[in-house]
């Protein structure tokens, strides 16, 4: 992987979150995750619940929503994903997943190319971050877009409309 310069929305803001994450780090958790993922990515050793707590505390303490419009907040979240350590990346993903997507701040035309750039530049390269980004964040985003486009549906209607979707698993195509 080639070295790609990382542009930060605000180094001081990112550093303040990193300090909070560092305070919650546990060497045993760090060791477990790094061994589990075969040392592909480095960890501090912060559990997901503690990443969430640190992110929420940081958002409130730094008054991010009050200081930045949606484009600035998205740049900040992307800057977190561009950091080296897994917990920073996960905090950026959680920022999208739990704040920006529910507020309908993520847009196809402007944000999908930025997300693609994260892959192209090598910022998302391990299976854990990939899973969180694609399944939990983008999956939630797409699901919320479908619900908005279709409007309220009677119980079971969503499943009926999409029951013919095909999924590839273990090199076999299955129908759901």
Can you characterise this structure?
The protein has helices at 11-23, 27-36, 48-61, 64-67, 70-81, 86-100, 108-120, 127-150, 157-162, and strands at 166-169, 172-175. Strands 1-2 form a two-stranded antiparallel sheet. Mean pLDDT is 82; it is low at 1-9 and 157-176. By secondary structure, it is mainly α. Helix content is 63%, strand content 5%. The longest helix is centred in the last third of the chain and has 24 residues, at 127-150. Helix 3 crosses helix 6 (86-100), helix 5 (70-81) runs antiparallel to helix 6 and helix 6 runs parallel beside helix 8.
Spell out the helices and strands N to C.
Answer: HHHHHHHHHEE
SS elements, strand count: 2
User: In what range is the share of β-strand residues?
Assistant: under 5%
**Helical content class:** 55-70%
Count of distinct structural domains: 1
Helix/strand structural class:
mainly alpha
Examine the secondary-structure arrangement and name the CATH architecture: Alpha Horseshoe
The major pleated sheet works out as: 2 strands, antiparallel
- Counting DSSP H or I runs of 4 or more residues, the number of helices is 9
Text of the CATH class: Mainly Alpha
The separation of the N and C termini measures 37 Å
Instruction: Describe the global form.
Output: globular
Uncertain spans:
1-9, 157-176
CATH topology: Leucine-rich Repeat Variant
| Rg, Cα atoms, Å | 18 Å
Which strand order does the major sheet show?
1-2
């Amino acid at each position: 992987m080639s070295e790609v310069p990382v542009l930060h929305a605000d180094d001081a803001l990112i550093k303040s979150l990193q300090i909070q994450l560092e305070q919650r780090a546990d060497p045993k958790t760090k060791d477990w995750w790094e061994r589990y993922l075969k040392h592909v990515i480095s960890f501090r050793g912060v559990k997901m619940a503690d990443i969430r707590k640190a992110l929420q505390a940081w958002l409130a303490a730094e008054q991010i929503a009050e200081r930045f419009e949606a484009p600035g907040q998205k740049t900040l979240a992307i800057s977190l994903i561009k950091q080296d350590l897994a917990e920073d990346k996960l905090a950026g993903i959680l920022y999208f997943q739990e704040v920006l997507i529910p507020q309908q701040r993520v847009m196809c035309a402007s944000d999908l190319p930025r997300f693609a750039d994260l892959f192209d530049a090598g910022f998302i390269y391990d299976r854990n971050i990939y899973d969180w980004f694609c399944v939990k964040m983008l999956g939630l985003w797409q699901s919320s877009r479908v619900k908005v486009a279709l409007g309220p549906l009677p119980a079971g209607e969503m499943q009926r409309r999409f029951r013919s979707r095909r999924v590839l698993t273990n090199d076999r195509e299955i129908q759901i």
